[in-house]
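Sample intake sheet
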Amino acid sequence: MSFKDYDVAALTEKIQAIHKETQPPIQLIPGQVDTILMNFDNN
């Protein structure tokens, strides 16, 4: 699937991530919705 800037996306599986500002690990859960602001290598 190809995403473009400003597409709206919803997670379909759990993802472990690192908070960019405060650095603690965070758990992203299915159903969370956000907007793609900038696409790097379609990831």
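Comment: The beta strands are 8-10, 15-18, 25-28, 33-35. DSSP finds no helices and four strands in the chain.
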